Structure formats: structure tokens, C-alpha cells
Amino acid sequence: MKTAKWRATFLLILFFLIVNTMNAQNNKLSPSQQSLVKISSLTATGNLDSLSVQLNHSLDAGLTINEIKEALVQLYAYCGFPRSLNALNSFKTVLDDRKAKGISDKIGKEIIVENKVSDKYEQGRKTLEEITKTPQSKPAPGFGEFAPRIDAFLKEHLFADIFAVDVLSYQQRELVTIAALASMTGTEGQLKSHIGIGKNTGITDEQLAEAADIIQSTINTTQANKIRKVIGVVEIPVVNSEIMVRIAEIEIVPEFVEEYQKILKENAAISIQKEPGVISIFPMTVADKPYEFRIVEIYADKNAYESHLKTEHFQHYKTTTLKMVKSLKLVEMNSVDKNEMPQIFQKLK
């Protein structure tokens, strides 16, 4: 009898452990969802080089060709035709390269181009009611009354023609939209609305927090904090308290100045582009001594700096310029006001 009770208790505990584990897993973004967040963020910001890399990773992670196509098509409604078209052209190039290498990618569910309904406005209005769980008047109050054509485009095209294609689910589409809006500036109102819609489709706060973490590593902390603010989680300081700032004072053998400058510029550009922890590598020369360089280096923290030293591009810079360097002095700096750092160079935009 005692054995039977013990066994029943054990099985009950095991059941709850399994359920809790499954719930925890369900609150995580799947690899495909993570890929959609990254693709959307990079498309919205126009970072085509990083997008091409991510498109390869996304195909490897299991996204189908048509799922990616549909996400990029949808994004024109949120970040404009130019960025959507540029992303689609980049995707075509990626697919051509993979095909040339003998890689066969899964096409996925067929994309139905035509949406044959008698009243697209009503179709879009009902779709919007379904995902917002709110009655939608005709026309939409405010902007819809002021500019009826934009209300028609919104209902008839975005929420009818685009959303009618079931290659992506409503949840996937909202994840795409949230990632794009969070990655752009000036879209806080729309982001808040779509986070609410996303929750209606089953996206959890935990998944949104994970999306914010992805955007932080893909775009930046400021944009990621926009999601964190809406869902009520602690925002991460833009400037890390462990930020590392130094000035490199380098004298170059005069005959190598031009060659060194070219290699230095290349290393700085690649480092900024590829390394999230490299905030700035800003080279300058002394006005009356073009062979004397001053490089302002800013890293997120010491780990980012040490990681930078191990990169292939830094090692290339180091080995190719070693013979050119006459003297080198590294000056460690402390910022008087770290909170002012995000304002640096903003007026140059």
C-alpha cells in the first residue's frame, strides 16, 4: 500500500516537472522565430551585409524560402518599399549563391498571389477585429476619417491581401512587425499597439523580452529598450558601467603612412560593423604631423575588448602593420559623464 502511494506521488511530481519544463520551453522563441526577429530588424534598419549573413543562418535554421519571402514582402508596409526591395534582392543573391554551392533549400507552402474576395475592406476590417479583439469602425477614427485612402490601403491591402496569405501565421506576422517597429525610431505608438496585438496571437512577455535581447545584439540597446519599456521589464542602461575607453597614440614610419591609413580604416569599419561590443574606433591624425595617429577606442567592456583582439580582422591589422609602427602608447581614459556618451556625434546625423 505504501509502495503504491509512493509511486503515485512520484508520478504526480514527475508530471508537474514535465509540464513546467514544457511551459518554459513554450515561453522561449523557437529558432525560426528568432530568425524572423533578426531578419526583420536588419531589414528595417537597412543593414544588408548583416542581413545576407542572417538569411543564410535562417535557411540553415529551418525557415523556408517562402516564409522569408513573405516576411520581407510584409515589411514594405512598415519600413517602405526601398528597404523591402533591397532585402528581397539580397535574399535572391543569397539563394543564387547557395544554389551554386549545391545547397537545396526548402521552398515551403505555396504563396497565393491573388486574393479573390468581393469586399477586401471588409475582409481586412474583420481580420483586424480578430487580432485586436476590438471592434473596428468604418472608417477608422482619426486618421481614417482624415485620409480615407490610407484607411482603405490599411484594410484592403495590409490586413486583406497580405494577411490572407497563410504562409505565415498571424503570430509570425506580428513578431515580424514588432521586431521591425522596435528597430526603427519614431514608431513607439505603433510598437505599443502591435505588442498588444502580438499578445492576442499568443506571444508572451517572456518571448518579447527575448526578442528585445535579440534586437539589442542585432541593432542596439536603445531600440531593444523600447520593447522592454512596453512590457514593463527593467531597461538596460545604454552605457555599460564597465565601458572601456582608451586613446592609442601611434607614430608611423613616414613612408608607410598611406598604406597604414588604408589598413586602419578597413579594420575600424569591419570592427564596428561585425562586433556589437566595439562601440567606436575613431582614427585621427595630428594636424601638422600626418604620421602621428590618435585612435579613440570605446568598447562595451573588457570582455568586448579582449574578444576584439582575437578577431581575424584585428589579427590581420596587427600583423600587416607591425613593421610600420615606430612607437605605440595606450592611454586608458575615464569618462567624466558616461551618460553623455550616447549624445556623441548625434548632431552629425
TrEMBL record:
InterPro entries: 4CMD/NDH-1_regulator (IPR052512), ABM_dom (IPR007138), AhpD-like (IPR029032), CMD-like (IPR003779), Dimeric_a/b-barrel (IPR011008). It holds the Pfam family CMD. SUPFAM superfamilies: AhpD-like, Dimeric alpha+beta barrel. This is ABM domain-containing protein. GO terms for molecular function: peroxiredoxin activity. Gene3D superfamilies: 3.30.70.100, AhpD-like. Residues 244-334 form the ABM domain.
